[in-house]
Design brief:
By secondary structure, this protein is α+β, with helices and mostly antiparallel strands. The chain has two domains: 209 residues, Metalloenzyme, LuxS/M16 peptidase-like (Cytochrome Bc1 Complex, Chain A, domain 1); 183 residues, Cytochrome Bc1 Complex, Chain A, domain 1 (2-Layer Sandwich), CATH 3.30.830.10. 47% of the residues lie in helices and 16% in strands. A hairpin with a 4-residue loop joins strand 4 and strand 5. Helix 15 packs across helix 19 and helix 16 packs antiparallel against helix 18. The radius of gyration is 25 Å and the shape is globular. The N terminus is likely disordered.
């Protein structure tokens, strides 16, 4: 999940499902939800923190997922990228973990903040900035930073987890959410409860400015130096003129450069509170013990009102929007149509369209553009970009073959879209989409860690983890007429945004 970082799902993903998973469907389907409900314990602490505890005693291991209902969509102008920055700050420690002398370290960090604010104030003056003063302030900042480093115990949080057999310690940020997850031997459950609760009770944003530099370098590498990265950023910016989905998760460079530790701490106090957190614990555990330990460790964290959801709505488009990124790189075509959020009844119809149009080498786009017309080396479709919490986009995309153009791929995609509107999909296509959806769920449920993340995802975004299973019943009800209706309603010119990489001659 580090990057869906959940930022975007890979544009070139394919779903390869083993035949055994599909065959297992016949015996695994039907009783899954009932069985899960029998093994699930749900409770909410007085401070609002929600827990989903699922018993799975096949192996002495436990997976944990802490889901914060906050992502880049919750940022304000001037602090874009701050949610993703918290992913980098996730395991820097607390007032007791990661430091040899927190009091002295805090004093040094305060000096860093003071110097950084002074540098920021001077730079705002632009051409009138005093360069000698800036140089002096930079020296003061670096001295305070070096002083703070003297008290730092690198990676103490991570090493404490690894010493007891913990694996997969990581975090991920998306437009809609931030997640923290790991797996531990089941006899080390209390250690996680202690450390995770301390991380939210006594967070310390140490090495904040160093991590900002890391994120800025990440932006340079993943967006500014990558043609597809630049295209995605430009594409989102024109697809959304009002809603925050129009700003890439990684944020604007100027915001990253000027973010302060105080702004980050304020963002944390607003969004990383118990009423905005949901935790799933899956594996070899005793629910009664978990509830007792949760009360002991997590109930001590003070809470506040859950932040209000985003109120800004993206207005309907009045016509097609287009953006071109000129680059010596290979051409690329990206076509997006606005669609409803995950809780809309048509969401499962878009899932079926994704499978029929874009999944695998038997999909319509791949067969038409790659196999038959040979005008592309890849072509596919997917939904859920930029996110699912609010109305997002359904995407069609293609990588033109050598000697062929963006225009050819774009026109061929439109032809397949029109075919979707005018010709009912075949019963075989629809049955395959439904079978693959069930098999895909079975595959995801096979992992404690994957299941913990799915449970919190559906609990937070749809209001009930059971919807993870109920979606299969919903997709079973999708008809060929539903697909035609959705295609005719949403895949229209005025609802369309097009982005292309236009290949130019190399400057070398």
């Amino acid at each position: 999940m580090s990057h869906q970082n959940r930022e975007t799902r890979s544009f070139l993903r394919g779903i390869l499902l083993p035949l055994c998973a599909i065959l297992a469907l016949a015996t695994a389907k039907g009783q899954d939800l009932a069985e899960f409900e029998q093994r699930m314990t749900e409770f909410t602490l007085n401070n609002g923190m929600r827990f989903l505890v699922l018993e799975r005693h096949e192996a002495p291991v436990v997976a944990f997922c802490t889901h914060a209902d906050v992502g880049s969509v919750d940022e304000e102008r001037g602090i874009t990228g701050i949610a993703h920055l918290f992913e980098h700050m996730a395991f820097k420690g607390t007032k007791t973990i990661g430091t040899t002398n927190y009091k002295a370290e805090a004093e040094a960090m305060a000096k860093m903040d003071e110097a950084f604010l002074a540098i920021k104030a001077e730079r705002i003056k632009g051409d009138k900035a005093d360069n000698e003063r800036l140089s002096l302030l930079q020296q003061q900042f670096e001295q305070a930073q070096e002083q703070a480093q003297e008290y730092l115990v690198h990676d103490e949080f991570e090493e404490a987890i690894q010493r007891v057999g913990g694996v997969d310690l990581n975090a991920g940020t998306g437009f809609d959410l931030t997640v923290y997850y790991l797996s531990l031997p089941s006899n080390k459950v209390e250690l996680w409860l202690l450390m995770e609760s301390d991380r939210f009770l006594n967070p310390v944003l140490r090495e904040f400015y160093k991590e900002k530099d890391v994120v800025m370098e990440e932006r340079r590498m993943r967006i500014e130096s990558q043609p597809t990265g630049r295209l995605i950023e430009e594409f989102l910016a024109i697809a959304y003129k009002a809603h925050p989905y129009g700003v890439h998760v990684i944020g604007h460079m100027s915001d990253l450069q000027t973010l302060t530790r105080a702004e980050a701490e304020a963002f944390f106090r607003k969004h990383y509170i118990p009423s905005n957190l949901t935790i799933a614990i899956v594996g070899d555990i005793n629910p009664d013990q978990i509830k007792m330990l949760a009360e002991q460790y997590f109930a001590r964290i003070p809470s506040g009102p859950k932040p209000e959801p985003m109120e800004t709505e993206e207005p309907p488009q009045l016509g097609e929007r287009r953006v071109t990124v000129e680059d010596p790189a290979q051409p690329f075509v990206l076509i997006g149509y606005h669609k409803p959020d995950i809780n809309h009844e048509d969401n499962v119809v878009f899932d079926a369209v994704t499978d029929i149009m874009g999944v695998g080498r038997t999909s319509r786009l791949y067969k038409s553009l790659v196999k038959e017309k040979k005008i592309a080396v890849y072509a596919s479709a997917l939904q859920g970009i930029p996110g699912d919490k609010y109305p997002g986009l359904f995407l069609f995309y293609s990588v033109p073959a050598k000697g062929h153009t963006n225009e050819e791929s774009e026109q061929a995609i439109y032809e397949e879209i029109e075919r979707l509107k005018t010709e009912p999909v075949t019963p075989q296509e629809l049955d395959k989409a439904k079978t693959r959806a069930r098999a895909d769920l079975i595959r995801q449920l096979d992992s404690n860690s994957g299941l913990a993340q799915l449970l919190t995802y559906y609990e937070v975004l749809t209001g009930d983890w059971r919807n993870l299973f109920k979606q299969l019943d919903q997709i079973d009800k999708v008809t060929a007429e539903d697909i035609q209706r959705v295609a005719r309603q949403y895949f229209v010119t005025k609802n369309r945004t097009v982005g292309v990489i236009q290949t130019t001659a190399s400057e070398n």
